[in-house]
Structure to design on (154 residues):
C-alpha cells in the first residue's frame, strides 16, 4: 500500500465507520421493531445478527485504519485518537456486548420482559466512537489537505 493510499484511507475508513453507526444504530435498530409482524424475539434475533456483522466490520475497519496509520507514519495525535477509538471499541465488544447478550438470552428464554440499561451503555459507546471518528476525520483532513492561501486570495 502506498503512502498516498494510506493517507486517503485515513479519511475514507473513519467516514465509512461513521456511516455504519448511523445506518445501524440510528436507522435500522429502531425501525426494525416498528415493522408489522416483528415480535420481540424475532427482532432480538435479527438484531444479534446485524450487530454481530457490524462489530466484525468495525474490527476489520479498525485493523485497516491501524495499518494505514502505520504505513503513512502517522503523528502522535492520530495514534492517540486511534487508541481511544480502539479502547472504546474493545470495551463495547468485550464488556458491554456480552452483558447485552446475557440479557437478550434471558428475554428470549422468557425470564425477562425486556428493557435493559445495558442497551444504553452500548448506545453511549457508539456515540463516543462516532464523536472520536468525527474528531479523527477532522484531524486527518487538516493534516492531508493543503492550507488555503487566505492572504493571496481575493
Amino acid at each position: 500500500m502506498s503512502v498516498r493510499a494510506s493517507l486517503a484511507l485515513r479519511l475514507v475508513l473513519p467516514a465509512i465507520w461513521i456511516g455504519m453507526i448511523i445506518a445501524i444504530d440510528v436507522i435500522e435498530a429502531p425501525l426494525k421493531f416498528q415493522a408489522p409482524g416483528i415480535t420481540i424475539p424475532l427482532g432480538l434475533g435479527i438484531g444479534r445478527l446485524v450487530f454481530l456483522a457490524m462489530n466484525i466490520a468495525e474490527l476489520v475497519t479498525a485493523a485497516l485504519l491501524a495499518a494505514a496509520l502505520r504505513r503513512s507514519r502517522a503523528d502522535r495525535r492520530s495514534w492517540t485518537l486511534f487508541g481511544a477509538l480502539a479502547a472504546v471499541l474493545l470495551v463495547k465488544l468485550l464488556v458491554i456486548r456480552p452483558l447485552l447478550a446475557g440479557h437478550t438470552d434471558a428475554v428470549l428464554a422468557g425470564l425477562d420482559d425486556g428493557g435493559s440499561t445495558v442497551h444504553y451503555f452500548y448506545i453511549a459507546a457508539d456515540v463516543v466512537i462516532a464523536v472520536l471518528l468525527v474528531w479523527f476525520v477532522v484531524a486527518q483532513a487538516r493534516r492531508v489537505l493543503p492550507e488555503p492561501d487566505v492572504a493571496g486570495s481575493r
